[in-house]
Structures are given as structure tokens and as C-alpha cells.
Design a protein that fits this description.
The two termini are 16 Å apart. By secondary structure, the protein is mainly α. The chain contains 13 helices and three strands; from the N terminus they run ααααβββααααααααα. A three-stranded antiparallel beta sheet has the order 1-2-3, with helices on one face. It has one domain.
């Protein structure tokens, strides 16, 4: 909990730092995004407290209901009047009091369902697992949001591995997953453009490779110790999504390699604690649930950092506990609450 609270505090500081100029220009209030993120943090901390109090075994009984609700919410984004379309994507629901991104809820819903399902030993579940993952990933890709679909798919396969599935299952799943990913890239021009920009960063600096190049400029400008907090130049409309998915670029520019290393080591320590809880929990459902949450947070962190450092193609995935955003933050903190509750059984 202390590690997570530390990440939240640092993330809140960086959200203000990287968003103040945009907030001042758009809302005449440089604290706008800071105040909004602070509200989500308070809500998320309450969610974490609730998750830590409710006995984790309760979620096993409601796993199917949670998954069905996740499917309904994912389909709801395509319903006119309920779904919100922005930047060419349909990823949010208008609930009047607030907006909800169902794909964030679906991550936790999938982890809970797979933990309950895999907690019961049975044979011949490979095709059912592939079908479930395929339908869930398809609903998210249609939004379109391939980054989140990747997080879900890798998390699901990771939990399948934790279950103790035979090796040949993975040898069968891996080629199918690669073919599906290539197909999704080829049928969508913007995804193909991102892949081309990743493979040829030196071309089209003002077009397809602009975002990645600006992230690399930010990280490179930071050097060893950074330019200092508040001294980023890339946050002034150079680096897109500077306080959401690309916030790590601003962090690298201001705190440098040493600061980034400390942040990454903090994430590694947090994930180590999560996997330690999974390893030490005797109950199979609790062990799979803790492992699934840890895999999800690890995969999302790696994809975000990998995209910012140009080691994988650019994807729109937020950095856990750091990036600006409500649905992701509250869901992640609720998951941490579940981890805390599982740790009480050790």
C-alpha cells in the first residue's frame, strides 16, 4: 500500500507538471487536470479500502456475473446516446454523473473470472479459453483500442500459464496470436502507419513517426539527472498526450535516467510483492487472482514504457498509478485492495 501511495503522489505531481500549460490554455485554470486527478485518487483510495475489506473469495461466486457485466459495458460503447465517440474511437460510456471506460473494468473482470475458472481443475478448456479471449479482444479492437486488447490477451495467456497448462497449448496459441495481430495491423491503415513509423523512425518526422520521435527527444533531453521538475520543454504541445499515455516522456525529461531508474525499480518492487503474495497464498483461487492482477499491471507497465522508448510500436496504454485518467486509476486501486485482502490470508 505504501508503494502504491508513493506512486500516486509522484503521479499527481507529474500530472500537474505536464498538464498545467494545456489546462491554462483550454480552461484558464492550470490546476484543472490536477484537481480532477485528485478527485479520482480519493475515489480510488476508497475503492482500494473496499477491496481490502471484502473477503477475496466473494469474487469467485460473482465471477461470471462480473464478466457478463464487462461484456455488456463493452458493447454499450457502440450504442448511440450512451457511447461517447472521440478522436475517432468509441471507448467511453456517458453515465451522466461521470464517463466510464469499460475496457478498464474488463481487465479486472477477466482476471477475476479466469481465476475462478482456472481454480477448478478440468480438461479440454483450451478452445473455450481461446474463444473467450477472441471475443473479448474483438470487442475492444472494434473500439478501436489494440493496446488494451494486447494487455488483456497477454494477461489471459499469462494466467493460463499460471494454471499449469501443458507447453503445447502455448505453442498452439502463440502462432495464432501473432497471425491475428498482423491481420489487425494490416486491415487498419493507422495501425500499419504506426508499425511503419516504428520500423523506420528516421522517415516522416512530422507525420507517422512524430509522436515517438518527440518521446525520444524528451527522454534524451533529460540526460543523466534531468532538466529539473517543471523544466520540461516537450510538455508545451510538442509531445502528444503528455499527461496521459506519454507522461513517462516528460518524467524522463525532468528527472533523467536516474529518476526513471528509481521509478522503474519501484514498479519492479511493487510487482515482486504482488507475485510474492500469489506464490505464498495456499488457496488456488487467491493465488491465481493475485498472480493475474500482478501480470496485468506488469504487462501494462511494460507496454507503456516500451512504446515510449521505441522498443515496441506506439500504443495508447496508460502508465499505472501515474497517467491522468479516472477509470484506469480507480480500477487499478481496487485491484490493489484485492491484493491487500489476499495478503491477509498468508
Amino acid at each position: 500500500m505504501l508503494v502504491v501511495l508513493g506512486l500516486l503522489g509522484f503521479g499527481l505531481l507529474m500530472v500537474y507538471d505536464s498538464s498545467s500549460s494545456v489546462a491554462d490554455r483550454q480552461f484558464a485554470d492550470k490546476w484543472y487536470f490536477f484537481k480532477d486527478q485528485l478527485r479520482w485518487i480519493f475515489l480510488g483510495i476508497w475503492a482500494m479500502i473496499v477491496g481490502s475489506v471484502i473477503p477475496y473469495k466473494v469474487w469467485s461466486r460473482f465471477a461470471l456475473v462480473i464478466l457478463v457485466v464487462a461484456f455488456i459495458l463493452l458493447m454499450g460503447v457502440f450504442i448511440p446516446g450512451i457511447g461517447i465517440k472521440a478522436y475517432g474511437a468509441s471507448r467511453w460510456l456517458n453515465l451522466h454523473l461521470f464517463t466510464l471506460q469499460p475496457s478498464e473494468f474488463a481487465k479486472l473482470g477477466l482476471v477475476i473470472y479466469l481465476a475462478a475458472w482456472f481454480g477448478n481443475r478440468e480438461k479440454g478448456r483450451l478452445m473455450a479459453f481461446v474463444l473467450l479471449m477472441g471475443v473479448l479482444a474483438a470487442l475492444i479492437i472494434l473500439q478501436p483500442d489494440m493496446g488494451t486488447a494486447m494487455v488483456l490477451a497477454i494477461t489471459g495467456v499469462g494466467m493460463y500459464f499460471l494454471m499449469g497448462a501443458p507447453l503445447w497449448h502455448f505453442l498452439a496459441i502463440l502462432p495464432a496470436g501473432v497471425v491475428a495481430a498482423i491481420a489487425m495491423i494490416l486491415v487498419a491503415p493507422y495501425r500499419f502507419k504506426r508499425l511503419s513509423a516504428f520500423l523506420e523512425l528516421g522517415t516522416d518526422p512530422a507525420g507517422g513517426s512524430y509522436h515517438v520521435r518527440q518521446a525520444l527527444i524528451a527522454l534524451g533531453s533529460g540526460g543523466l539527472f534531468g532538466l529539473g521538475l517543471g523544466n520540461s520543454r516537450q510538455k508545451y504541445s510538442y509531445l502528444p498526450e503528455s499527461f496521459t499515455d506519454s507522461i513517462f516522456g516528460i518524467i524522463g525529461e525532468e528527472v533523467g535516467f536516474v529518476g526513471c531508474l528509481i521509478l522503474i525499480l519501484t514498479f519492479i518492487y511493487l510487482l515482486f510483492l504482488g507475485f510474492k503474495i500469489s506464490w505464498m497464498t495456499k488457496d488456488r483461487f487467491g493465488s491465481l487472482l493475485a498472480g493475474g492482477i500482478s501480470i496485468w499491471l506488469a504487462v501494462q507497465t511494460l507496454i507503456n514504457l516500451g512504446a515510449m522508448m521505441a522498443t515496441i510500436p506506439l500504443t495508447g496504454v496508460p502508465l499505472p498509478f501515474i497517467s491522468y485518467g479516472g477509470s484506469a486509476l480507480v480500477t487499478e486501486l481496487f485491484a490493489v485492495g484485492i491484493l491487500l485482502n489476499i495478503s491477509k490470508s498468508i
